[in-house]
Amino acid sequence: MEINKFEEVFEGKLAKNEMVEPKDWMPENYRKHLIRQISQHAHSEIVGMLPEGNWITRAPSLRAKVVLLAKVQDEGGHGLYLYTAAETLGISRDELLTNLHTGKAKYSSIFNYPTLTWADIGAVGWLVDGAAIMNQVMLQRASYGPYARAMVRICKEESFHQRQGFEIMTHLAFGTADQKAMAQDALNRWWYPTMMMFGPPDADSPNSENAVKWRIKRETNDQLRQKFVNQTVPQVEYLGLTVPDVNLKWNEAKKGYDFSEPNWVEFKNVISGNGPCNKERLAARNKAHDEGAWVREAAQVFAKKRSEVYAAA
Amino acid sequence: MSDNQGPVWEIFLQKKAGQPFVHCGSLHAYDKEMALQNARDLYTRRGEGISIWAVPSNAIIASSPEDIGPFFEPSNDKVYRHPTFYQIPDAIGHM
Questions:
Q1: CA atoms of A175 and A178, how far apart (whole Å)
Q2: Which pLDDT tens digit goes with each residue over A157-176?
Q3: What is the rounded distance in angstroms from the CA atom of residue A87 to the CA atom of residue B27?
Q4: Could you tell me which chain A residue has the CA closest to the CA of B3?
Q5: Nearest C-alpha neighbor of A215 from the set A135, A149, A142, A152
């Protein structure tokens, strides 16, 4: 087949809402876009284990501790689903990890903020996982099969993450005055970074147009952000807390809230490596990887030796 | 520095006894035992399966998407392989 024939088949698939699979022909830019997006997503899951892992040893009860452990383990699993999805596009695990460890690849800006109190663990589950779910529900219908299938599995598991976070928030918000103040403080610090998770405004988002054209994304950054605010504000009200935004107001005409944009200058700074925890996060990833080198080496030598023993027998 | 992450394995899960094994994803592992243990940890954290197959990725032979026409063509014109091809008298009812 000639190249334009291949392109026709590819475009036809998108038009019919069919999935593109690893062995199908795809435009080079589509492949590149997917590798970038899926690997960023995978890195976010793995780096996302760090701010929460920070509280495992200090969880306030045994129940809270086993829940947090299970959640952090899930995040590791999500990272692995996504790495293997990215690998179907012809990039190796080594390369993906090297890109993360050298700072060449990006991950979600949200994980460069610190988790200072136990209330932050509630806010992260409730807001950060809530925002992630909103994005991921959409991605279950992404045009690339392995990515969409990983998303289906992830979405099933994320629901527990958001609910456990909200449960922590209810305990604090309906607890003592000090506990309620902790909950409000966490909401104040996580609100805007969470809003940034949907990415820059549509007018200023270089990758959005292609992502929508190729049906990788089906809603734009601004649409998802609006949806998130609409969904979350009633939950904040239920908790008796206040969204840290004086411009937040119901707009009957658009059946949604008007709200303040997050600080996009701060967003750019955090993305470019200058957030509160960027250096710490990358150092922790590199340390874990380097200190695991002997395990990988030993497993490899062991597997090789044993296959030689089998071959000789 | 590059280091080996181990070969890729394709993982198939059987949800319940008697049901077919269904592909659920892939993973890296250095040997068979590790492939099974990793599959258990990665794909069955919530009772998604009672039995696991792990198959080295490079052992899978796959048909090629470009061949979809010629490869499957021989079965496309054989409508008589389907039950709806045959007329059964109304008096007989469901068969």
A1: 8
A2: 988 999 999 999 999 999 99
A3: 10
A4: A94
A5: A142
**Chain A contact set for B28 (CB, 8 A):** 84, 93
Amino acid at A164: Q
Chain segment A202-247, per-residue pLDDT in tens? 998 877 888 888 999 999 999 999 999 999 999 999 999 999 999 9
ipTM: 0.86
Residues 6+ apart with CB under 8 A from B95: B88
Contact with chain A for residue B7, Cβ under 8 A: no
Residue B64 tokens, joined: 């090629």
Give me the residues of B, 11-50, that contact A with CB < 8 A: 24-28, 30-31, 34, 41-42, 45-46
Place of tokens 């795809």: A26
> How would you write B30-90 as a 3-class SS string?
CCHHHHHHHHHHHHCCCCCCCEEEEEEHHHCCCCCHHHHHHHHHHHHCCHHHCHHHCCCCH
| pTM (whole model) above 0.90 | yes
Q: Nearest CA to A231 among A150, A157, A129? A: A129
Which amino acid is it at A24? D
A307 neighbourhood in chain B, CB within 8 Å: 31
Q: Rg (Cα) of chain B, in Å, rounded? A: 21
Residue A253 φ/ψ region, left for φ over 0, alpha for ψ in the -120 to 50 degree band, beta for the rest: alpha
CA-nearest residue to B28 within chain A is A84
